[in-house]
User: Which sequence fits this backbone?
């Protein structure tokens, strides 16, 4: 018994990820935390997407289910669980059953290396970024399996189009990633790193986020990745393969109920995963804005107050909207619910002001804030851009993004070499 | 890996065979991991399981499989097959048990922290010529495929 307690507490004093420290218990705890956080994030994304899209289209979105539709995702989840589970008659049973699992597996396994902080990752592989790209390319296989196993025209065409699109934009993504990895090698020893934590530490050591490095090369590489990641996750404006008006929901037409919700979960998790790659590679991961420039303690204090202030801001918005609710007796429950939610958020915000908590939460907060910014961009793109036709989509992937990626790679390598030769002979 | 390999050759449905091949390739990637070569394992997953097999599946799904599933599968050269497999397996066994001195200077370093860096140094340093020739080969293959598939040149 004492040995178990000692095994559990021995990790608390180390400054490594659980995978590097070899501690199985804490690795499992981290996995559970990441899984829970991801599920909450997907649920929140569902609500946010409907609300933000609605506000962009000058309408209100779900307002009935909870106060301002806050319980809508829960209602959706219950509906999906209770729907009838249909399998088409001629469908290939085993593959039909396995396809959603493969997609969800690929989407969730990428989070093993995502760095929420210098030691806040489940593990830190030496090939972290390669692992993430590889495992997210396995979800293409799940989509192909889903389209084929449904044994019907729309899913098959949708699956083939979707997987062709994903494979094409993986190439552009890979080139953009390579040019960012190249920037990690501009240090004293001249060796770069593929590990996600190492990439953020390289940005910290070089004193600038890679998006601003060798301006505008870092920016162009980031732009290429940002476009390719939207196409990789089959989101608007590249969602021809699953758009309702084009292909009657594409590869997941024949899936209903819980199986469809697995595809949905996998899509949003993949969105968060590729946003995490973008944040780690170009936007400095868990680093707060201006980590080296504004280095004195007062700025440190100001930035450490940000998590608490954010939650207090959300709590204030909840109270404001609770005060604006109609004063009708039927709305009393909603008003009380919204006020309660506001109180909960306010308490979380107050807890985040405690220095001990704030020190640990800093990195995770900044990382999550940047990924949340990307999620907002995803929803913004969906509300703004018209859909690409499939041949325009493929043309852009191969004829525009691939040459741009190659050009950025060559230019980045040349500028890096010049910098090494001219300033550090 | 063995289960995947056996499933590849025994399934009647070519799509099932391709999926079993994916399982085999993923198992091979984990074998690379066990040999302290994480970079090769990662690249295997990206390229082979995630790229080449997707294209395999495209072709298999677009070519009509109803006919091929209903065809009678025959195996009339199994004697020669068994002899060849036994010979090859025997060769592997002999090399494994008695051939430890064949490649003495390429013993595994057993440290995986800088596997990627070492591969890069060797690939772009000592084996640069072979690297360029291989990429030229791939270029010729791509141009050949484009020429054969285009309607007018």
Assistant:
């Amino acid at each position: 018994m004492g040995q178990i307690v000692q095994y559990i507490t021995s990790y608390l004093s180390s400054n490594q990820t659980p995978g590097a420290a070899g501690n199985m218990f804490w690795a499992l705890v981290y996995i559970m935390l990441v899984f829970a956080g991801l599920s909450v994030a997907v649920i929140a994304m569902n609500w946010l997407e409907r609300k933000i899209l609605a506000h962009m289209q000058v309408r209100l979105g779900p307002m009935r289910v909870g106060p301002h539709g806050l319980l809508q995702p829960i209602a959706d989840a219950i509906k999906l669980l209770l729907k009838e589970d249909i399998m088409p008659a001629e469908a290939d049973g085993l593959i039909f059953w396995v396809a959603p699992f493969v997609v969800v597996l690929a989407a969730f396994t990428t989070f093993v290396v995502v760095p929420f902080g210098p030691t806040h990752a489940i593990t830190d592989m030496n090939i972290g970024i390669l692992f993430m790209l590889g495992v997210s390319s396995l979800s293409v296989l799940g989509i192909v399996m889903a389209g084929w196993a449904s044994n019907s025209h729309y899913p098959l065409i949708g699956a083939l189009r979707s997987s062709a699109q994903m494979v094409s934009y993986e190439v552009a993504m890979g080139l953009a990633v390579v040019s960012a990895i190249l920037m990690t090698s501009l240090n004293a020893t001249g060796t770069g790193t593929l590990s996600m934590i190492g990439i953020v530490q390289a940005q910290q050591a070089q004193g600038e986020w890679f998006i601003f490095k060798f301006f505008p090369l870092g920016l162009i590489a980031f732009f290429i990745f940002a476009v390719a990641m939207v196409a990789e996750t089959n989101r608007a404006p590249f969602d021809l393969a699953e758009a309702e008006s084009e292909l009657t929901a594409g590869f997941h037409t024949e899936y209903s109920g819980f199986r469809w919700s697995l595809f949905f979960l996998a899509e949003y998790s993949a969105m968060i995963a590729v946003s995490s790659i973008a944040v780690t590679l170009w936007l400095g991961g868990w680093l707060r804005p201006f980590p080296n420039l504004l280095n004195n303690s007062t700025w440190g204090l100001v930035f450490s107050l940000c998590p608490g202030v954010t939650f207090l801001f959300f709590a204030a918005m909840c109270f404001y909207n609770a005060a604006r609710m109609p004063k009708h007796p039927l709305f009393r429950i909603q008003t009380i619910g919204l006020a309660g939610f506001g109180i909960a958020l306010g308490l979380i915000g107050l807890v985040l002001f405690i220095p001990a908590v704030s020190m640990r939460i800093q990195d995770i907060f900044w990382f999550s804030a940047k990924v949340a910014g990307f999620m907002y961009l995803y929803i913004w793109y969906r509300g703004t851009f018209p859909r690409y036709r499939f041949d325009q989509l493929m043309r852009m992937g191969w004829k525009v993004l691939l040459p741009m990626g190659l050009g950025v790679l060559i230019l980045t390598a040349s500028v890096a070499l010049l910098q090494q030769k001219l300033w550090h002979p | 890996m063995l289960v995947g390999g056996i499933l590849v050759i025994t399934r009647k449905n070519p799509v099932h065979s391709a999926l079993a091949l994916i399982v085999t390739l993923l198992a091979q990637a984990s074998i690379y991991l066990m040999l302290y070569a994480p970079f090769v394992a990662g690249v295997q997953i990206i390229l082979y399981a995630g790229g080449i097999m997707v294209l395999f599946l495209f072709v298999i799904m677009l070519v009509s499989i109803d006919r091929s599933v209903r065809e009678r599968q025959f195996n009339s050269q199994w004697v020669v097959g068994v002899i060849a497999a036994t010979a090859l397996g025997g060769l592997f066994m002999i090399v494994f048990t008695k051939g430890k001195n064949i490649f003495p200077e390429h013993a595994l370093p057993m440290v995986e922290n800088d596997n990627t860096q070492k591969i890069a140094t060797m690939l772009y340093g000592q084996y640069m010529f072979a690297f360029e020739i291989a990429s030229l080969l791939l270029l010729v293959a791509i141009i050949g495929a484009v020429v054969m598939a285009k309607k007018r040149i």
Remarks:
- The helical segments of chain B are 2-10, 14-34, 38-62, 66-70, 78-98, 115-126, 128-149.
- Chain B has a mean pLDDT of 83.
- The interface with chain A takes residues 13, 15-16, 19, 22, 38-39, 41-43, 45-46, 49-51, 53-55, 57-58, 61-62, 112-117 of chain B (CB under 8 Å).
